[in-house]
Amino acid sequence: MFLNFIRTNKISAGILAFLRIYIGYAWLTAGIGKLTGPGFDASGFLQGAIASAGGDHPAVQGWWAAFLEHVALPGAGVFSYLVMFGEVLVGLALILGIFTNFAAIMGMTMNFAFLFSGTVSTNAQMVLITFFIVVAGANAGKIGLDRWVIPFVKERLHKDNHKSEKHIATV
Question: What is the pTM (predicted TM-score) of this model?
Fold first, then answer.
């Protein structure tokens, strides 16, 4: 019953649009703050997360700290870039309601990375709200650009698949 409501109801689409824009604004402002601030560098955050993996009550799991130490920290420049532009792009996509589910999943991925790194802040709240956006599927972007973009993309993919099937059949 609830699943049907969240996926098909027009009132639900309005509520989801509000939640989507709220989460999008949070991502956009965080990303713009990093882009326009004095040279965002994730290496300090990464070092802090790695340090939080030790002691009697570690806030960061050992497997995640190993990933941060051996992959993320050596590539801190790339990760800094991905975080800055990822936050901006996820924020814009959610606000505009374009490729909503993909943007929401990418946002949740970043939230979980921050949670795994020991940062609670608003990340858990954002994951919870974003979960409803993802579960709602297409209804979450119905009041947004997805209303036109998704059918257009599906039509183009269907035409391209149909052309390739004809080509394969003639070969």
Answer: 0.88
